[in-house]
Amino acid sequence: MRPLERLPTIRAKLGSTIVFAVGLTLALVFVFLGFALRSAFREAELGRLARIADQAAAATRPSPPAGVSIAVLRDGRFTWVGDERTAPPRFGDGRVHIGIANGLEYAAVPLRRSGEPPAMLYAVRSAPGVLPATVRFLRDFWGQLLVAGAVAAAIALLIARWLARGMTQPLRDMAQAARRMEMGEYGQRVQTRSRDEVGQLAAAFNRMSGELESLERLRRELVANVSHELKTPISALRAHLENLLDGVERPDPETLQVMLSQSERLGRLVEQLLDLSRLESGEMPLHRERTPLQPIVSQVLSEIQVASANRDVRVEDRVPDDLPPVFVDPERVHQVLFNLLDNAVRFTPPGGAVVVSAQRTNGSCEVSVADSGPGIPPEHLPRLFERFYRVDPSRSQRDGGTGIGLAIARSVVEAHGGRIRAESEVGKGSVFTFDLPVAAAAETRRAS
Fold first, then answer.
1. Which letter does DSSP use for residue 122 in this model?
2. Distance between CA 178 and CA 191 in Å, rounded?
3. Integer Cα distance of 316 and 334 in angstroms
4. pLDDT confidence of residue 369
5. How far apart are CA 119 and CA 180, in angstroms?
């Protein structure tokens, strides 16, 4: 485990990181400062050496500190007390002299003892190199440097905690919102004005919570709609069966036909739900093959014309014969076309027309189903392909629709790598368009 992973909060981690960085920076600054100023206080060092020499001159038996040698210059000759060193410059004018020569720091003071001739007393030590001079500077000023480092670290820690509180507030809000979402409250949002990674994370969290809220809404609507759709034919079947048992109705062909219609509606709904579930989960394999589009359209149109013979709606086929074949599952494309055409015919008033057309666009074939019905209000277009969504629920139920055909159509088209969309203008009709991959282009992509 890394050291920072032991800390419980981001504020603690950020504060520790900043304090460590400040401490390391100050240490490097102090070392470089000592290196740069190693000679700046040489006069003060020589002054201290002069005081050592002055104290030795006043003592009968001088005892110099470690590293300092004492010498007496009398009659041009040095007499050493302690380690003998290279001779420093000679002075005999009775004045105080300090300086550096021959790799030595020296301080010379006059020696006047009663009964002795005049002489000069020297305190001598080796002039430090670069590293010793730097260490000596740091040793002399370690107290001031320590106080400066402690103050800087304390200020950095306070600033870090203050900054971290603002930086981590969205994270704490997200943690609290996530705990509420665990209990099913998906309407949680996090407020932040930050544009950094935390702000981007908060924006992603808000998008995720919005998606979860939408999914939860769709789930509830699905349960309610499935329950309603299943309840309607089951209730009708139950009522007829109870009437038959009570003798209110007789098992004549008309009653049995009504019961059969309700059971077929129930079976159709269950089959559509199973198809949609398999399509969305990817468990339904697509048996793709090179397929001409025109025969599929002709077959669907013939089935629609038989099913809607009493509706007085004209259905036109405007699909060109020279379209290239598409690489699709023919049965599933048949299902998409049938759903779209069935909806178009059911919602087109008598005397209206439904037109099927197609054209090649780049590497795909664009198929359109246009009707002259009442149109769809713009606010309903984004949700048309949701399960059980109806623009006019009462009319759809009266016409026998389940509200799931468009959802199946979208799943089939997307499984083929295409896209389905709807355009409409109230009072002028609607156009549903979807894309299918052209055989040559699709097979080339699969081969690569």
1. E
2. 14
3. 17
4. 95
5. 93
